[in-house]
Design goal:
The N terminus is likely disordered. It contains 2 helices and 4 strands, in the order ααββββ. Strand 2 and strand 3 form a beta hairpin. Strands 1-2-3-4 form a 4-stranded antiparallel sheet. The chain is α+β, with helices and mostly antiparallel strands and 83 residues long. It starts with 7 loop residues before the first helix and ends with a strand.
Length: 83
């Protein structure tokens, strides 16, 4: 079905899928700009000194960067499970 009023749960599902796909494509050696281009910029993201956090719905992607080279040191993807 095309058009319509826009379904926020559908938007969240799409955003979550994008974060998961981005996580799967992260590789050592990427810098901050590479990660932002890959992830996109979710509306509720956070940027700290050496940490990028993207959150969409129940999915949270955290990417840590080395403070001198600004290259990825680690990344985690967490999905909150509802009980």
């Amino acid at each position: 079905m095309e058009g319509g009023s826009g379904d926020s749960s559908s938007d969240a599902s799409t955003g979550q899928a994008k974060l998961i796909a981005a996580y799967d494509k992260l590789v050592q050696g990427m810098d901050w700009t590479d990660v932002e281009a890959l992830v996109g910029v979710p509306a509720n993201n956070e940027r700290h000194y050496s940490l990028f956090i993207g959150v969409v719905g129940d999915v949270r992607l955290s990417v840590d960067f080395h403070t001198r080279s600004w290259l990825i040191t680690s990344a985690t993807l967490k999905k909150r499970v509802h009980s």
